[in-house]
Automatic annotation (TrEMBL):
Compartments, as annotated in UniProt: Cell inner membrane; Cell membrane
Annotated protein name in UniProt: Bcr/CflA family efflux transporter
Cellular compartments per GO CC: plasma membrane
InterPro entries: Efflux_drug-R_Bcr/CmlA, MFS, MFS_dom, MFS_trans_sf, Sugar_transporter_CS
GO molecular function: xenobiotic transmembrane transporter activity
Assigned protein family: Belongs to the major facilitator superfamily. Bcr/CmlA family.
Topology relative to the membrane: Multi-pass membrane protein
Keyword annotations from UniProtKB, A to Z: Cell inner membrane, Cell membrane, Membrane, Transmembrane, Transmembrane helix, Transport
Superkingdom of the organism of origin: Bacteria
Gene Ontology BP, a term: xenobiotic detoxification by transmembrane export across the plasma membrane
Length: 421
């Protein structure tokens, strides 16, 4: 008889969505204020962009630490520690008197928020695999879409009434909510084993992941697809508010097209998975991504308008919702005993791709040209990597054993130290 997991699918989905949402919400709440920051600090546009670029950098790189730490020390204490850093950084950003202080605070915010992506995916892999895992990843996507969908709108409406500092006050409150949920609702799903805090062992884990073609191909499908959302965040505020002429409030409302398309797609995917299975819906999603990429590329030819910019963005986002659940599960499935490290590296590739492309766009200088050139390249990368992934022999998942009711059947620390084969 299979032991009952210590947390239900629904509970893991809700906690996972809350954890993973803190990073995108912190990005989306802030974007309407970027143009105002240029005037408030009497700074160059390129300097203000660093507040977003370094947030990405902290978010992407710190995941490589957060996940393995949670494998060794436990999911709960690591989540609480990183979120305390996030709250402290949010307070510092609220009180900042110079753009340099704000840049540092945003970097620290990114480090703190990084724990969400790593822990949420690791929690799912600790308890579930296969179709159950894909269903949870999909439900996380549905709930996740609501936060970033509303965040630019909330940020844009708060900005003229309460000022930009109020945005960071709200982030502080959100961080405290995550800490409370972690303390009172999240169950621990791994056995604490401090012997795993070993640089050589950690380097070996990452080396194995970086030489695993299945992990890399699935991860770069996610990187090319979902990473485009993070790259677009560095382009869209300047395209829509400077080139198209939207106000901060209008910009916030316009971003509903992006997140609303992802939310709608996630709802549809949940129904389609029950009929066709999760694997068969990836290719249609990539077709939507390719269509959105072609539409975005036309920005190189024709002048921008609201619909010209946002219709391709919405189509691309709709396609992401088809791709993300299955490919996230595929990347993590073989690595149950090192789920934290695998989830961290997956998140690093996902966020790192957005960081690299956003940074290249900043070097180009023209946000419109950068988006028309670079976002289609990310869509092409996702499609190419999926082709590589499909050429590999299928993976047969092993039963998920850890973290069962009342602690029964928990694996020993030594048994958890080696990756699944």
């Amino acid at each position: 008889m299979t032991a009952k997991p210590i947390m239900s699918e629904r509970k893991v989905s809700i906690i996972g969505a809350l954890l993973v949402a803190i990073g995108p919400i912190s990005m989306a709440l802030y974007t309407p204020a970027m143009t105002e920051m240029v005037h408030h600090f009497d700074s160059a546009e390129s300097v203000v962009k660093l507040t977003l670029t370094l947030y990405f950098g902290g978010f992407a790189c710190a995941q490589l630490i957060a996940g393995p730490l949670s494998d060794a020390l436990g999911r709960r204490p690591v989540t609480i520690g990183f979120m305390l850093l996030y709250c402290a950084a949010s307070i510092l950003a609220t009180l900042s008197q110079s753009v340099e202080t704000l840049i540092f605070a945003r970097f620290a915010q990114g480090v703190g928020a990084s724990v969400g992506v790593a822990i949420s995916r690791a929690l799912v892999r600790d308890l579930f695999t296969g179709e159950k895992s894909s269903r949870i990843m999909n439900l996380i996507g549905i709930i996740l879409a609501l936060g970033p969908a509303l965040s630019p709108t909330i940020g844009g409406l708060m900005l003229p009434v309460f000022g930009w500092r109020s945005i960071f006050v709200l982030m502080t409150v959100l961080g405290l909510i995550v800490i409370c949920v972690t303390i009172f609702s999240m169950k621990e799903t791994v056995v604490r084993d401090t012997s795993r805090l070993n640089f050589r062992a950690l380097a070996g884990s990452y080396r194995m992941l970086l030489t695993n073609r299945r992990f890399l191909s699935a991860s770069f499908v996610i990187g090319g697809a979902l990473g485009a959302i993070y790259a677009q965040a560095t382009f869209l505020p300047f395209i829509l508010m400077r080139d198209v002429g939207l106000s901060p409030s209008q910009f916030g409302l316009s971003m509903l097209a992006q997140s609303g398309a992802f939310f709608t797609g996630s709802l549809l995917v949940r129904r389609l998975m029950t009929v066709y299975g999760s694997e068969r819906i990836v290719l249609p999603g990539l077709l939507f991504i390719a269509t959105g990429s072609v539409g975005t590329a036309t920005l190189l030819i024709w002048p921008p308008s609201f619909l010209h910019v946002m219709i391709p963005v919405a189509i691309y986002s709709f396609g992401i919702s088809f791709v993300m659940p299955t490919m996230s599960t595929a990347a993590l499935a073989p690595f149950g005993k090192m789920a934290g490290a695998a989830a961290s590296l997956l998140g690093f590739i996902q966020m790192g791709s957005g960081l690299v492309v956003g940074s290249i766009g900043a070097l180009i200088g023209d946000a419109l040209f950068a988006m028309g050139l670079l976002i289609p390249m990310m869509g092409a990368t996702a499609c190419l990597c999926y082709g590589i992934y499909k050429r590999m022999p299928p993976y047969t998942p092993e039963p998920v054993a850890p973290a069962v009711a009342a602690g029964a059947g928990r694996p020993s620390a030594s048994a958890m130290a080696a990756p699944d084969r």
